[in-house]
Design a protein that fits this description.
- The structure is a single chain.
- The chain is α/β, with parallel strands linked by helices and about 350 residues long.
- The protein folds into 2 domains: about 5-200, 3-Layer(aba) Sandwich (Rossmann fold); about 215-345, Glycogen Phosphorylase B (Rossmann fold).
- The chain is about 35% helix and about 20% strand.
- The protein contains 13 helices and 13 strands.
- It has a 7-stranded parallel sheet, with helices on one face. It has a 6-stranded parallel sheet with strand order 10-9-8-11-12-13, sandwiched between helices.
- The protein is elongated and about 65 Å long.
Length: about 350
């Protein structure tokens, strides 16, 4: 029997539930395969949880056992330095500082968990990751793929495309990237075939729209601050009964208290709903229009023919590889969004 270790950091803990991972993972894994789940946490230390331990002694042991340290640092830097190219010139200083700090952190984590993942790589045949470029996941990737020559599988958990630095064609010869990429369907990802072995998941799912009494605008949030101008525009519609604004928190920002604080300007409006726990398809079944900065919910919404409005022109370029996406995504200058709302219903 093939044994798979599914490993991810606790900050991704809501992703499987939000995205129906258990459902679509079965579309590519054999029923004869045994899957064990391992979640790293700062607080919990039982069951599937492993407590994070960044001890100096563990770092020293790992550092002494890792070969080709300079080469490893170079490959980590290659993955994260791509971010520099994606930022504006005014952000270059921040980007370099961010990259060097991230590379140092990842190298430190790999050393700390070298012994732990070396033992795990002897117990399992394959490693399955959510977001392989997370620092803990890269520690697992290094031990499974580089040291033990085991297969590493990465599950698409969000946007993947030419604009994504961790899936760039420049990484083709980087030994830290996964062997197999499990992709959502409906994407033109020919360039990825030269980097990964591709398998396609039975995802996204088509949803059936619920009958609602008002026009529901769904806003999917991400891990950066909410656009305050958008909140001001929504506040201008506080007496408008024909609209409902339904906010969906990001799975990695799953605390209701934080979400409500971010939305304090409008949170008490009668036509505003806030959710961080709904499954993405349950949420989508309620909405008529989707608003986002650049969330991968664009793909899931388009698959069920729900249109998306974005206030970022670059988002159009990000999702250009999705089949027929032009029919379901529209850029609008946010200063014109209030007028747009008044004209659509």
């Amino acid at each position: 029997m093939i044994k798979n270790l599914i490993c991810f950091d606790e900050k991704y803990i809501n992703l499987p539930k939000s995205k129906n991972f258990n459902f679509f993972l079965h579309s590519v894994l054999s029923s004869e395969e045994k899957n064990d789940l391992l979640i790293f946490s700062k607080n919990k230390n039982s069951g599937v949880f492993v407590k994070k331990k960044f001890h100096l002694l563990n770092f020293i042991k790992g550092f002494l056992r890792i070969d080709r340290r300079i080469e490893l640092i170079r490959y980590i830097f290659q993955i994260y330095s791509e971010k520099i190219l994606r930022l504006k010139i005014s952000d270059k200083k921040y980007a370099f500082e961010f990259t060097f700090l991230r590379v140092a952190k990842v190298f430190f984590v790999i050393c700390c968990y070298f012994e732990f993942f070396s033992k795990k790589s002897e117990e399992y045949d394959n490693l399955i990751n959510l977001c392989y470029y997370n620092s803990l996941n890269l520690a697992a990737v290094y031990c499974f793929k580089v040291i033990k020559n085991k297969t590493v599988i990465d599950i698409q958990h969000g946007y993947i495309g030419k604009e994504h630095p961790a899936y760039s064609s420049k990484l083709k010869n980087n030994y830290l990237i996964p062997n197999i990429l499990l992709l959502w369907k409906n994407q033109n990802t020919h360039y990825l075939k030269n980097i990964f072995k591709l398998k396609y998941l039975n995802y996204p799912l088509k949803i059936k729209k619920k009958n609602t009494t008002s026009f529901i605008i769904g806003i999917s949030l991400q891990t950066f601050p909410v656009n305050q101008l958008l909140l001001e525009i929504i506040n201008n519609f506080k007496e408008e009964k024909k609209f409902t604004f339904f906010f969906k928190g990001h799975p990695m920002d799953f605390k209701d208290a934080k979400l409500r604080e971010d939305l304090k300007l409008i949170r008490n409006q009668k036509n505003v709903k806030i959710s961080s726990k709904d499954n993405i398809f349950e949420w989508l079944s309620n909405i008529d229009l989707h608003i986002t900065h650049s969330s991968s919910v664009i793909i899931e919404a388009a698959f069920s023919k729900i249109p998306t409005v974005t206030f970022e022109k670059k988002t159009l370029k990000m999702y250009q590889d999705i089949k027929n996406i032009d029919n379901y995504i529209k850029y609008i200058n946010i200063t014109k969004f209030e007028k747009y709302l008044k004209n659509i219903y």
